[in-house]
TrEMBL record:
SUPFAM superfamilies cross-referenced by the UniProt entry: Periplasmic binding protein-like II, Winged helix' DNA-binding domain
Family per similarity comment: Belongs to the LysR transcriptional regulatory family.
PROSITE patterns in the record: HTH_LYSR
Domain of life: Bacteria
Protein name, per record: LysR family transcriptional regulator
InterPro entries tied to this protein: LysR-type_TF_proteobact-type, LysR_HTH_N, LysR_subst-bd, WH-like_DNA-bd_sf, WH_DNA-bd_sf
Keyword RNA-binding in record: no
Domain called HTH lysR-type: residue spans: 15-72
This protein's UniProt keywords: DNA-binding, Transcription, Transcription regulation
């Protein structure tokens, strides 16, 4: 008991949720009136809650400019942390509500990988583990697990996530694709012919085309530049529309090719610039839903790794 008492935060540093919600809403919306509408409170109630938080912390969080509250620099930093904490509490509460027996896995996924590769396979996992609920959210880039509160993430790149355990899923294999009409208008006899055509680009893989040409024995090629995209999904739609050629992961291209929306332009599948990984915070490695998901994911991706 003595140890727990010594490590507990002072009560004055643990404001109530109502105080924090009002403070965060005022900082985000820019006014007590807007915050009041969002929280279904009166403007006066919001002002009193903000004053209550300042009194509890013993710090002035806002400059009073006539009828406006202008957050101090320290308040803006505090608001960002409070926003993350409230989001974590809300997601955890949702998990408890949806599965009161426990077994919730909060997973961050890449948008296209999640919808096109993972989602069709999830029913098999959930059937095998009926007590586990998976909450999904999309993230394009690595983040701080301590701040975001996820149990795990699937990301693309290398095994370089700080403070995290990792399991390789499979290497990316890229296929040069285009619409059937684009290929009819731009016939090619070999990989080298692609260099003069519009090549669609992905922000996260700026050297993908150069690598593809190199792996096909074409050194020093100066590829024509095409449109830039931040996600495979939009780049795929542009290729289907005939805007240019797209280098797509084999798992994504296969469905579009089978349904006739895309064709393989030429060449073989080339090794991409990274791999897909499941990563998790080292402190949460023993979370039972994560252990079950990790084991299942390792089994279904073993053939793709050549295990």
């Amino acid at each position: 008991m003595h140890k727990a008492h010594m490590t507990a935060a002072p009560r004055r540093l643990l404001p109530s949720i109502s105080l924090l919600q009002a403070f965060e809403a005022v900082c985000r919306t820019g006014s007590t009136a807007a915050a009041a509408r969002e929280l279904a409170l009166t403007q006066g109630a919001v002002s009193r809650l903000v004053q209550g938080l300042e009194g509890q912390l013993g710090v002035q969080l806002f400059q009073r400019d006539r009828r406006r509250l202008v957050p101090t620099e320290a308040a803006q930093v505090y608001a960002r942390d409070v926003r993350k904490a409230l989001d974590l509490i809300a997601r955890s509460s949702l998990g408890v509500r949806s599965n009161p027996g426990g077994g919730v896995l909060s997973l961050a996924i890449l948008p296209t990988f999640g919808t096109r590769w993972l989602a069709p396979r999830l029913p098999a996992f959930l059937t095998a583990h009926p007590g586990i609920t998976i909450n999904l959210a999309t993230r394009l880039r690595p983040f701080d697990f301590a701040r975001e509160g996820f149990d795990a993430a699937i990301h693309f790149g290398r095994d370089d996530w700080q403070g995290a355990g990792a399991m390789k899923l499979f290497d990316e294999r890229l296929i040069a694709t285009c619409s059937p009409d684009f290929l009819r208008r731009n016939p090619v006899s070999g990989p080298g012919d692609l260099a003069s055509l519009p090549l669609l680009q992905l922000e996260t893989r700026p050297d993908a085309w150069a690598q593809w040409f190199s792996q096909h024995g074409i050194e020093g090629a100066t590829p024509a530049r095409g449109m830039m995209f931040d996600q495979f999904a939009t780049m795929t739609q542009a290729a289907i529309a005939g805007v240019g050629l797209a280098l797509l992961p084999a798992f994504l291209a296969a469905g579009e090719i089978a349904e006739g929306r895309l064709v393989r332009a030429c060449g073989t599948a080339a090794t991409g610039v990274g791999s897909y990984w499941l990563v998790w915070p080292e402190t949460g490695a023993g979370h039972p839903p994560l252990q079950a998901f990790r084991a299942w994911l390792g089994t279904i991706t073993a053939p793709l790794r050549g295990d």
